[in-house]
């Protein structure tokens, strides 16, 4: 039996075991498989592991998307989580190449994926409070928001979660060093039903301006 003789349900099941590139390559072989590739039911979950993946055309964004994960683990991408005032010229140039990559992608998610239930961002150093605010407003069904090592996230994201996260059940801001204990306490007070976690966040040294860096260096020399 040829693969195209399988019914739609079987083909969708087959495609579900493939990664994004394999799905795209298989879809190029005939119109029937292309239609399966374009079926929204196939794209309820998306995982990305590098900025380049967000710019490919091997996936679809749509109302069926419920679970989204964008997690960078590359040593090069970790440069984005260094404070801007500590980056050398090479690091700044590297960051500028994909500074808006994740934010632009999440804007598309806001416009196309109103049924999103879960979002996980890890190592996305350029994502801002405004971006998360927009997403919370446009994805009212969001139940889980997990942020890890997103250095530009501040208490404004916590405020946005309290104001617009009506369906929110889980909020993690691990290793987000610009989140403060006061901000966490306000969320706990206003949203007692939300499971809030902030491992190594409020106790970490937040991003500082250059003059504060000098003060820290002087303090270290005195020790």
Automatic annotation (TrEMBL):
Record flagged with keyword Amino-acid biosynthesis: no
A GO term from the CC aspect: cytoplasm
UniProt xrefs under SUPFAM superfamilies: F-box domain, RNI-like
Matching Pfam families: F-box-like (PF12937)
Keyword tRNA processing: no
Domain annotation F-box: ranges: 9-46
Keywords (A to Z) from UniProt: Ubl conjugation pathway
InterPro entries found in the cross-reference section: F-box-like_dom_sf (IPR036047), F-box_dom (IPR001810), F-box_LRR-repeat (IPR050648), Leu-rich_rpt_Cys-con_subtyp (IPR006553), LRR_dom_sf (IPR032675)
Protein's recorded name: FXL22 protein
Organism of this sequence: Pomatostomus ruficeps
Gene transcribed to yield this protein: Fbxl22
